[in-house]
């Protein structure tokens, strides 16, 4: 082999090596481009998903704000109608506080990754707080309905009415008798005695009503009638007794 042929062979080998390195680098660059494009597409898809989630979160937050505002206005109006509330002192519905001055508890979010969920203080939503306020306002505006007296208590109402009426009648008789003596203001004392006689049959009704209210019941029209019946019987017996004595 001549030197020229050997040099030509060496040049061809170097050219083939350069072409192989070029092909290898082109393949690496193409693979890197494809990997970068796939990674960019993945990042873009994730960013679009996060943007869509943020839009949904913002829409839910706006809807919740509107619902909370409407519920707060309804509760404020209901509170203005509550018994014992002065409308002028209560005023109009106050404006909401600035967002910068409030903790970020508008919506419940998942705990941060790696954070201790048990260590985080429990947070209550605005709906929970408004529901609790609504229960308290309902108790004020519309008191709880009381159950009527049991049947065994109804049987005791005539006796209670008779006892209270009898005690009131005896007090009235004492006032009338005492007013008949020569004491200053005797006419007034006798007038009070006769007034007590008139009120004696119904004197047991407020006592029975107070007893029922204290034990969580209500005195219905039937119970009032039974109490009045016992009081009228007792008053009639007292009147007959005093009449026969005189």
From TrEMBL:
Q: Where are the transmembrane segments?
A: 152-179, 191-212, 224-245
Q: Is Membrane one of the keywords?
A: yes
- Organism per entry: Krasilnikovia cinnamomea
Specify the protein name.
Uncharacterized protein
Going by the UniProt record, its keywords in alphabetical order are: Membrane, Transmembrane, Transmembrane helix
Q: List the taxonomic lineage.
A: Bacteria, Bacillati, Actinomycetota, Actinomycetes, Micromonosporales
């Amino acid at each position: 082999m001549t030197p020229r042929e050997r040099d030509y062979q060496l040049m061809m080998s170097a050219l083939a090596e350069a072409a192989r390195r070029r092909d290898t680098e082109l393949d690496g660059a193409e693979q890197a481009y494809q990997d970068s494009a796939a990674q960019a597409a993945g990042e873009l898809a994730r960013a679009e998903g996060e943007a869509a989630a943020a839009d949904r979160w913002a829409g839910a937050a706006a809807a919740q704000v509107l619902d909370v505002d409407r519920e707060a206005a309804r509760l404020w109006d209901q509170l203005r109608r509550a018994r014992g509330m002065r409308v002028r002192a209560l005023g109009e519905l106050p404006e909401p506080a600035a967002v910068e001055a409030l903790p970020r508890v508008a919506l419940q979010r998942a705990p941060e990754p790696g954070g201790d969920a048990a260590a985080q203080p429990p947070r209550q939503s605005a709906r929970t707080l408004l529901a609790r306020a609504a229960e308290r306002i309902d108790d004020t505006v519309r008191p709880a309905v009381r159950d009527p007296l049991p049947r065994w208590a109804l049987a005791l109402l005539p006796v209670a009415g008779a006892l209270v009426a009898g005690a009131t009648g005896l007090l009235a008789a004492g006032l009338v008798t005492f007013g008949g003596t020569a004491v200053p203001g005797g006419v007034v004392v006798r007038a009070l005695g006769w007034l007590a006689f008139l009120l004696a049959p119904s004197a047991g009704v407020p006592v029975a009503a107070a007893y029922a209210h204290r034990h969580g019941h209500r005195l219905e029209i039937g119970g009032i009638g039974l109490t009045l019946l016992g009081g009228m019987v007792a008053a009639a017996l007292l009147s007959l007794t005093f009449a026969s004595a005189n």
